[in-house]
């Protein structure tokens, strides 16, 4: 009977971790995408101060969430996104012309992480 309880506890823990991982990835994707879209809009309006503030908030948010996601997700994907997101604030400070393209790259990295971590038939098997 003890083996049955241990198996049930293990199953509950596994399911809880899966739910936590899905929630974390989706919430990170949604929030990071909002920051990036806001920064892209600011760059389109030549408002580099707002773009810089959005990039800083994105970088701070990403740093906070990356701690949890590192335990759950392949580090290679996260490293690419981390490098791109880490450079955005400096690009905005310097009003660099490549800022908008780097914002799009960051958005694509985050979207790729989100799509690869979603529970779908293809991702499970």
Short description:
This protein is an all-alpha fold and 125 residues long. The protein is 88% helix and 0% strand. It contains 5 helices and no strands.
Structural summary, described in words:
Helices cover 88% and strands 0% of the residues. It has helices at residues 2-44, 48-72, 75-93, 99-117, 121-124. The longest helix is centred in the N-terminal third of the chain and has 43 residues, at 2-44. The chain starts with a helix and ends with a helix.
Strand content: under 5%
Coarse morphology: elongated
Q: What's the N-to-C terminus distance?
A: 32 Å
Number of helices: 5
| Element-by-element helix/strand order | HHHHH
CA radius of gyration = 18 Å
Low-confidence segments, ≥5 residues, pLDDT <50?
Answer: none
Summarize the main sheet: none
Helix content: over 70%
Kindly name the structural category: mainly alpha
How many strands?
Answer: 0
Question: pLDDT average, as an integer?
Answer: 89
């Amino acid at each position: 009977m003890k083996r049955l309880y241990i198996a049930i506890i293990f199953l509950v823990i596994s399911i809880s971790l899966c739910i936590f991982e899905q929630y974390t990835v989706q919430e990170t994707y949604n929030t990071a995408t909002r920051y990036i879209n806001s920064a892209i809009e600011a760059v389109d309006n030549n408002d580099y101060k707002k773009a810089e503030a959005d990039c800083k908030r994105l970088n701070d948010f990403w740093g906070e969430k990356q701690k949890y996601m590192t335990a759950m997700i392949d580090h290679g994907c996260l490293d690419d996104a981390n490098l791109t997101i880490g450079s955005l604030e400096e690009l905005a400070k310097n009003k660099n012309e490549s800022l908008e393209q780097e914002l799009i790259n960051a958005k694509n990295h985050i979207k790729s992480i989100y799509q690869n971590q979603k529970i779908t038939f293809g991702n499970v098997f």
